[in-house]
Here is the input.
Amino acid sequence: MEIKKKLLMSSKETRQDKFGKSISYLSIGFIILLVSLILYFIISKGLSTFTQNNVNVWDFLTKQDWSPSSIGKDGKPEVGALPMIITSFGVTILSAILATPFAIAIGIYMSVIAPKKGRKFLQIIIEMLVGIPSVVYGFLGLTIIVPMNRHLFGGTGFGILSATLVLFVMVLPTITSLTVDSLNSVPKYLSDASLALGATRWQTIYKVILRAAIPGILTAIIFGMARAFGEALAVQMVIGNATLMPKNLITPASTLTSQLTTGIGNTVMGTLGNNALWSLALVLLLMSLVFNIIVKIIGKRGSIK
Amino acid sequence: MTGILQTENVHLYYGENEALHGFDLNFNKNEITALIGPSGCGKSTFLRCLNRMNDLRTNVTITGSFKFNGKDIYSPSIDLTELRKTIGMVFQQPNPFPFSVYDNVAYGLKLAGMKNKHKIDKIVEESLKEAAVWDEVKDSLNKSALSFSGGQQQRICIARVLAVKPKIILMDEPTSALDPISSSKIEDTLVRLKKDFTIIMVTHNMQQASRISDKTAFLLNGDLIEYDSTQKMFVNPSNKKTSDYLNGEFG
Ligand SMILES: Nc1ncnc2c1ncn2[C@@H]1O[C@H](COP(=O)(O)OP(=O)(O)OP(=O)(O)O)[C@@H](O)[C@H]1O
Ligand SMILES: [Mg+2]
Here is the structure.
């Protein structure tokens, strides 16, 4: 009788287990709730431009005039976000293109070539660069890069080029450190195999190590792009914030994020001007979702088993 | 039998630690030589001297003479990449590149700058056939080499080495990670390869050594205890330590 009771009663360990489980389920539930609320908020606010103010979605995505307070020729408010969408992609892609070769070169140096000391040193620098707040980058851009571009190309110095250069510095450490991780995860026995087949060190680096690390490097680039795409403050400080279709790299322009930060303080909740900004935020949200999905797909396809 | 590789007075230090205590070992062409001995006795260390893979490690000092066809393989004028093509190596763990089977086997050829697709195709096929894995992979040459079994992967790795047409193949326990059926396939392969190549193989499997090798070298704590024809070694070893080891009395 005693034994049966003892066996049927849950042990202390089981109870602890249950307790731990319920705590983690509770936290997960809370986070899911939080995320859904944020999503709901941005989506409902972002859609109100189209539902309440009757702006055509297609017009929003393809028209080039942005001035929500005035009425255009067709009698509809002018909320064409295309210039900002294009500029956002422009600075993102340009800065990634600029940063990737540097990131790969530094990555190879750090993971394959550098002696331990150099590696540690670079590691510290990169971690430091990641940790610097973006307003500092913006400030540096404002005091160094903008005047430099003004001097070199004329005009105000504000524009896509300045934003690209600032973002380049900001995404470089992100892309580099993820690239180093993916290069480091290429097992040593693969480079041994290559060397034993008569490959030189350099051949081994680019034919085996780089090739095996490609999925990881792509992921690194996408992460860098996501960071560039979402960066607001630093970009806002150097891009000039003119909601015009970019014609070149050295005249003022505006990204989705810079327009958001510039505009959010100057509009009244519930007006079209405010709703239109929420729509920009919705576009940003959808894009970061796309970046995430791309990372997932690459991760699944290319992982070394 | 003609000699192909002579080593003399081989000493090797890992830092201060002497791992090989000075011995001579000569290898004959078109023979399989087995290196046996308990764990840690220096078999892999010695093997890696022969294609200079120890150069990749820091803090290793090697002295002694290593002659391949009379040429000193540690001479400064030697072309290291050429040497490693001539003296190929198969590792203990199958280590195919995470590429297709075809790209794995073609790797060494492309390194050498071979561009002729037709020729590469032909060598890839021949090498996979020689390594006795062609029938299992011929319909999926473009599939990742990692999608095959360990035994198949190891034979793909052997094919990858054969493709660059080495003279000597070093093998460090090539079957220790494999099941008996895969192992025996590889053993058959090695016996067939003997007519074209010279094979030096580390093994912990005494039956394997006795089945396929012509000569056997017994190493113990960095010393060469006995080196003779496999038959003589296994039937009538001249050193007491050898017979103890073969009878499983230590190691
Ligand atoms: N990289 C290294 N640094 C320092 N010592 C090493 C290194 N590699 C091997 N050794 C030492 O050298 C000796 C010989 O090692 P080795 O790997 O050649 O043995 P082995 O005969 O191949 O053993 P096993 O059968 O376990 O593979 C061992 O005592 C080992 O500890
Ligand atoms: Mg070993």
User: Anything to note?
Assistant: The mean pLDDT of chain A is 90. The longest helix of chain A spans residues 12-51.
